[in-house]
Amino acid sequence: MRLRHPGRITVAVILILLVVLFVLDAAQRTAFDWPDVGKYLFDQRISQAALITLQLTVYSMVIGIVLGLILAIMRLSPNPVVKAVSWVYLWIFRGTPVYVQLVFWGLITLIYNSIIIGIPFVHTWDVIKIDWVPPLFFISVVGLSLNEAAYMAEIVRAGLLSVDAGQEEAAKALGMSWGQTMRRIVIPQSMRVIIPPTGNEVISMLKTTTLVAAVPFSLDLFGRARDISAETFVPIPLLIVASLWYLFFTSILMVGQYFLEKRFSRGIGRGRPAIENDPDAPVIVGGVGGVR
Amino acid sequence: MTPVQRATTPDAARPMVEAVAVSKRFGGNEVLTSISLRVERGQVMCVIGPSGSGKSTFLRCINHLEVVDAGRLYVDGELVGYRERGDKLYELKPAEAARQRRDIGMVFQHFNLFPHMTALENIAEAPTTVKGMSRRDALERGRDLLARVGLASHAGHYPSQLSGGQQQRVAIARALAMDPKLMLFDEPTSALDPELVGEVLDVMRELADTGMTMVVVTHEMGFAREVGDAMVFLDGGVVVESGAPRELLANPQHERTKAFLSKVL
């Protein structure tokens, strides 16, 4: 028998051997502290923190998608002022690291601790102190979602631009307003292009939630794992625990994304029935169509 | 003739479309140069000409899909796309332009049906969203219109499941659903396989028989000869020749018209 891909098989065997070696080695290393991994994997503090991470992800994504849609539509608006607002937003939020943004949001109450009513530099009538200190969870969601909105805006924009210009024209010719055209014609058709990268964004967001440490918010999965290890002085098993939870969630999301993509790629290249089967087609004999 | 006089013309005598020295340029390229023509009520006006002659652009100017740079275009006595105050023109707000377009139906070369809606939903869409018609009434009306274009049994089909000819017939029904007073056809059969052209022309002929005013940009000279009441030949953005289709096609006066017709007939 002749092997078809001898190179591939050799590489695969070597890789498998390396993995086996790594696993055997890891099992013996005390630093990994496997019994502790088992102990903390289903620790209630960890599972509760996992829930908070999920909440951060869901809230930030939902707000990010809605805001992103608004920004994308603004970016495509014929009004130059509206367009500029969207552009500046994207410029700032895509142009600075999300970690830095989160630190800023964490300090927001320090920056804006009062509202000054008056004419700037000239006269102050009143200063209203802001006593409200928003919960850190709230600040985290604000920071993550405002950043996400900038990325979602680009995804949505690509989706909207993927819709044939003739569609907008046809809607316009029917007397539909710009808003009606967007809502009824363009947005529904753009979903096919928007959904797959949005799935990626959800997965990405799940992992980005670890950055809320910058706020500093620490009740999320990674934050909690870090806090626990700070008490027990064994960071490595908790790192593994957190990683396993993240892997678990991203795996579920990847499966979901697969099915969503399959669903939304449907309807393209749908077979059209043969023309001969059309019982309604008028029978043309000769006809003016023939003279050309 | 000034606009003031035009406004006092009685309804029936007023032309449906009147272009007065309409010019249009894209960048430095002048596509329409001082086009003047009239389409009377109930008339079928055929616009012919080589590609790039500006005939589609002119059609799109009539419902303000393209903005006219100079000259005036009136539909049913109403200035298209602009408001006249004193001797100055102000472009209409998008909402006002949309209101003007409601009464003007348009059929495109590539149909431009909404692919995410069934044939029936395509037709019912504008009456419900634009005119506020109840969904039930709009669907009922849509069924009537589908029957009128011979597609009663295709109500639930998506555009991708229809042949080109069927799609174009749905597109005509969709335009008719808004009860337009004027129908614009932008090369409605050019994208069709030859054997599907006839069914679309049949629907258009029936529509013309009902007295609908139509402006048809077309290469179907047979249709133009049989159905058209008037014809203009456009070349290089100017009206080279106009007249009754039979006359113009049989006996072109201008060299350019002769040259063009010798190629297409």
Major sheet of chain A: size, sense and barrel closure? Answer: 2 strands, antiparallel
The overall average pLDDT of chain A, rounded, is: 87
Query: Structural class of the secondary structure composition of chain A?
Result: mainly alpha
Radius of gyration of chain B: 19 Å
β-strand amount of chain A:
under 5%
Helix content of chain A: 55-70%
Distance between the termini of chain A: 66 Å
The poorly predicted ranges of chain A are 269-292
Shape of chain B: globular
What low-confidence regions of chain B span 5 or more consecutive residues with pLDDT below 50? 1-7
Q: Helix tally of chain B?
A: 10
Number of strands of chain A: 2
Main interface pair? A-B, 38 and 58 residues
Oligomer: heterodimer
Overall description:
Chain A: It is a multi-pass membrane protein. Chain A: Keywords: Amino-acid transport, Cell membrane, Membrane, Transmembrane, Transmembrane helix, Transport. Chain A: Residues 50-257 form the ABC transmembrane type-1 domain. Chain A: The chain crosses the membrane at residues 50-73, 102-122, 236-260. The complex is a heterodimer of chains A (292) and B (265). Residues 269-292 of chain A have low confidence and may be disordered. Chain A is mostly helical and 292 residues long. A two-stranded antiparallel sheet of chain A has the order 1-2. The longest helix of chain A is centred in the N-terminal third of the chain and has 32 residues, at 44-75. Helix content of chain A is 69%, strand content 4%. Chain B is of the alpha/beta class. Helices cover 38% and strands 26% of the residues of chain B. Chain B has ten helices and twelve strands. In chain B, strands 8-9-10-3-11-12 form a six-stranded mixed β-sheet, with helices on both faces. In chain B, strands 2-1-4-5 form a four-stranded antiparallel β-sheet, covered by helices on one side. In chain B, helix 4 crosses helix 5 (135-148). Chain B is globular and about 50 Å long. The interface between A and B is large, with 38 and 58 residues.
